[in-house]
Amino acid sequence: MDRIVSLPGDGIGPEVTAQARRVLDAVCSHHGLEIEWAEGLIGGSSIDAHGTPLQDEVIELCRGSRGVLLGAVGGPKWDALSVDVRPEKGLLGIRKALGLFANLRPAAVIPALADASALRPEVVRGIDLLVVRELTGGIYFGEPKGRGEEGGVRRGWNTMVYDETEVARITRVAFEQARLRRNHVTHVHKANVLDVSQLWMDVVEEVAKDFADVTLSHQLVDSCAMLLVRDPGRFDVLVTGNLFGDILSDQAAEITGSLGMLPSASLATGGFGLFEPVHGSAPDIAGKDQANPLAAILSGAMLLETSLDCPAGAADVRAAVSATLEAGFRTGDLLLEGEDRPVVGCRRMGDEVLARLGAK
Ligand code: IPM
Ligand code: MN
Asked: With a 6 A CB cut-off, is 265 part of the ligand 1 pocket?
């Protein structure tokens, strides 16, 4: 029996993870996999119940599991709290505690949704890229950090720091992923200004020597942001640090036209992983059965593939999601301006995916 932990979190997190669970249950039983679910609190819901965004018990629960399915954290209710006790701290805490250093964020166009992008159709058609973001280091965790006052002037500071082992291990993940795709890695940096990026440059070049079959290029982060909207089809795998990866992965997601569609995996050494949609907690529509559960469902597909070693199940989920969209079902976020289609809610979207599972 494989235990999977569900951490629904805040906002629309509980609604979308509920649908992902239904889909995972169906696929697992179809493929003869026995899973049991455990559930924990994270983020604002944990603050409300226990006064902290992440309890040690929850970390232990995850450690004893095969994988973790997370919803989203955060919301206006907790916005006034300081950064050390906010819901987001729970997410950062679990990434660090479980050693989830490799964040994989695929952004590809789903043909049925190509028109939803703000970019021209001929530009969108080529998008199939993977952002490999370092997730447990860099400016998110670097010391010194803090706020203070000097001579009556308020200051705030963080430190972007990496050591070579952190850079080398995420770079290896990127090259390995490239081998499963189109054999190209783009390293995204700011080496014209930052010393830390110069270290990345050296280490990425060294690691690349072990992957002669994969081509490597380096791209400054600002021009990368520009190229992502001008010619996104040129990118295969992008590898970068925590902060640049945070920003570029939202941009990459949005140019596909559907932030509400994109899953992610955060992996530790040995393949243990946490899977979550890239979108946030969308407090404005929380609890209204309006959220798009497809990113959570597709995160479930990544969990099937990675934690449960069931690529066939993952393929079933992806096929069912595509078939649901091709049949015309849309949640509100996927509807184009002026498009005349019935909009379905979160649960109904889950029903429609379930109905198409295994149906070829
Ligand atoms: C993400 C989110 C998080 C991050 C926040 C919620 C802490 O934006 O997963 O991209 O910045 O990493
Ligand atoms: Mn982000």
From this structure: no
Which of these is catalytic: 10, 162, 236, 250? 250
**Ligand 1 pocket residue status of 134, Cβ below 6 Å:** no
Cβ pair 88, 74 in contact under 8 A: yes
The Cα–Cα gap between 347 and 352 comes to: 9
DSSP collapsed to 3 states, 38-64 = EECCCCHHHHHHHCCCCCHHHHHHHHC
Mean pLDDT of 341-351: 95
Q: What is the pLDDT of residue 359?
A: 52
Give yes or no: 162 in active site: no
Supply the residue whose CA is at minimum distance from atom 7 of ligand 1: 88
CB-ligand 1 contact for 139 (6 Å cutoff): no
Assess contact for 303 and 326: CB atoms under 8 A: no
Q: Could you tell me which of 249, 237, 261 has the C-alpha nearest to residue 129?
A: 237
Domains, the chain: 1-110+259-360 (3.40.718.10), 128-254 (3.40.718.10)
Alpha carbon distance 213, 111 (integer Å): 30
Q: What whole-number distance in Å separates Cα of residue 66 and Cα of residue 147? A: 39
Q: Which of 10, 89, 162, 190 is catalytic?
A: 190
pLDDT at 125: 87
Q: Are 286 and 15 in contact (CB under 8 A)?
A: yes
Which residue from 87, 3, 9, 88 is spatially nearest to 41, judged by alpha carbons? Answer: 9
Question: Among residues 10, 89, 140, 316, which one is catalytic?
Answer: 140
pTM assigned to the model: 0.95
Altogether, the residues listed in the chain come to a count of 360
CA dist 265 to 67, 212, 224, 312, Å? Answer: 10, 26, 22, 18
Helices marked H in the chain: 13-30, 44-50, 56-63, 87-97, 121-124, 164-179, 195-208, 221-230, 242-255, 294-306, 311-326, 346-356
Q: Summarize pLDDT for 223-266 with one digit per residue, the tens.
A: 999 999 999 999 999 999 999 999 999 999 989 988 889 999 99
